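Worked example (supplementary).
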Amino acid sequence: MDLQALKKLEHQRRVRYGYMWALFCAILWGLWYLPGTVVWVLNPFDEMYAEIAAGSGDSIALLVTAVLITAFNALTVIIALMVWNGVLGKFGEMKRTLVEFKPCSKWFFLASIFGGPMAILGSFIAMGFVGAAFAAVAALMYPVVGSILASQWYGEKISKRAATGIFLIIVGGFVIFGGGLLTELGSGNVQWIGYIGGLMAAIGWGIEGAIAGKGLDIAEPDVGLTLRFLGENIIWWVIAVPLLAIAGFPMIKYALMAFEPLTIMVLVFAGITFGFCYVTWYKSFPLIGVGRGQGIGNLYGLFAVLFVILFFGDVPSWTLLLGGAFCLAGSFTMFSEDTSSLESLRGD
Amino acid sequence: MVQSAAAMELYNGYWANSYLPSAEILWMVVILIVALVALWQARIFVSKF
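After joint prediction of all chains, the assembly is encoded as:
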């Protein structure tokens, strides 16, 4: 076998692994909506919601409760990532990356701003106001933002096929948002905050992916992602939760009350699914590119709807299913692209 | 703090209409299996690249 054939074989192997990681991301992300939904009804979050709603109204109560749930989600994610990095023996690499702030870890801290307070909080808001299936399907538009940013910023190639996939995902997004909105406009009861939450998730995860793609030029995905969640934990536990406590919300009281066996168990499973889905998402970017990694990761919409139907017995509305089908068609269009065109992910 | 009766009723209500048997346990088993397979594949990946 000559050098060229070996190079081609190695490239094919890397692309295959890239798609495998993106698929793992999709399955685990879909599973995350199970603990992410049921945690809302558990103590102390239900009591926290009721107490704040009595004084400040339902919308504020939901937002503040979402902040505490998201903060705990970030905490359990970083524990899950420590296990992941421990098993892979990456602690030494983590220390090396952390100290290299300017060229390296700054990208992951920046990614945590868009991924945490914007995307994950938005997703929890959408789950709380509209429902798990909507939250899952609404964020399906994030590869559009991610791939356009990656293309404009650092010249990641977008082929005609990838552009077709992105177009299908946009159509799907309009059907998802438009369908739900029309139904609610008809009934005169529009949960605007829930829809804004869905939009926050789509834009936040798209921007995060593009920023992460830049950071992953020089850092390891497993380590980079752990630093990204370190940043998110700082945002929640050092900035947001104390600020809300100073503003008079009972954050500390309910944060301490969350250490209840069932609540902690559900949060741990949220941490495992979200931490592992995120790390496999990051691992796919250097192998197949941000656009494709996000495109295939988008199959989480299919898995989320499937798991919600199987485990909760909830069948989503036809607009959600139709929009989801468009998004999936877009993802498959990207997935079925000839891998030889991926030999160089960046433009020349 | 312990879970209130109302919280447990709502929590159990999520799994009550599931199409799968013992859904309240099965979702955790599924997550653990997928997570362990992912971790095992990550170990293989680290050794190859």
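Two points are worth noting when inspecting this output. The interface with chain B takes residues 13-14, 17, 20, 24, 27-28, 31, 34-35, 37-38, 41-44, 46-47, 84, 87-89, 222, 257, 260, 262-263, 265, 269, 272-273, 276, 280, 283, 307, 309-314 of chain A (CB under 8 Å). The mean pLDDT of chain A is 84.
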